[in-house]
Amino acid sequence: MPDEQAKLPRASLGHLSAVFLRLGLTAFGGPAAHIAIMEDEFVRRRRWLTHERFLDLLGAANLIPGPSSTELAVYIGYEQAGWRGLVLGGTCFILPAALMVGVIAWAYVRFGTLPELAGVLYGIKPVVIGLVAQALWALAPKALKKSGLLGIIATGAGIASSLGVDALVILLGSGLVTVVARRVFERQENGGAASAFVPVTAAAAAGAAGAAAPVGLVVLFLTFLKIGALVFGSGYVLLAFLRADLVYHLRWMTEPQLLDAVAVGQVTPGPVFTTATFIGYVVGGGWGALVATIGIFLPGFLLVALTRPLLARVRRSAPAAAFLDGVNVASLALMAVVTVQLARAALVDIPTIVIAIAGAVLLIRWKVNSTWLVAGAALVGALVRELR
Questions:
Q1: Which domain holds residue 232?
Q2: Residues with Cβ < 8 Å from 182, sequence gap 6 or more?
């Protein structure tokens, strides 16, 4: 740890828990907003971290799969109070949102046909599409500008996803292909990038959907554990995994229900990954909500604990950097494909199309905070449904 960081005070467990509980109750706006709030809270106001150390921890959170802002909270907790801080920092940041989502899920299952709830979701769903589109708009140029190879890999990943190839195969395959291709290009300047992508695009497509699988807590836990351990990039990449596993393979949910789950995640503060809490409750009740929440967040805690001592080596590794470049552009391709697929369930009439376009314009042109946008869309949706 740098000398300057060593001179700064450390938080007590009680103080750390209280701050993260408050952030979990008020941190609207998505991962970027969460990170800005943490920087202001822990670097500027409380001086628990130097700017340099905060950036180191943020970079580390972006190098591992899972929700980056939640993993940043876990890293900060670990930095301040060791193993107990790791557990409390992350848990206190997640818990308020998970409880809110759980209550909404209960109401959704109990009163899901009420016009008030239907109207709110009717307005929010199109905005979710706009939020994902805006994230793609912001992230894609930064990820793709590094080399033409990454553009080819992103295109191949999008085609593979459209053909039904499993999201895990696409992500891992894209990362490995990028590593191999970079090495080939280093040795042979004129090596072909397109041929290197064959292992991904030629991967076996997922089988056709059959009858719905029975809902079991073990399968539910393992499904979300896998997702939590493999989702790179924006939290919206989560949509691709959820659709592949829960809608297409297991057939536990419909696409409109999945979009409802993501919309509820947007209404509440905290990580988008608390969508898992909603889905768990819808398909498995209270125990399902608990199992799904633990499953999706557990890998982040474990990865922070395992990677913190190795951060310097990982960041200096050229193969690791190439692998992550490939994974990131494949993640963006998955986001693009799932946005198109879910738009069919959200854009059902002229008002929803207008809401989606207006939301995208406000986000991209005037950078309206997503919290106000979601709140406004919920109000508009409720009014439109009331007037019908």
A1: 3-112+127-346
A2: 149, 318, 322
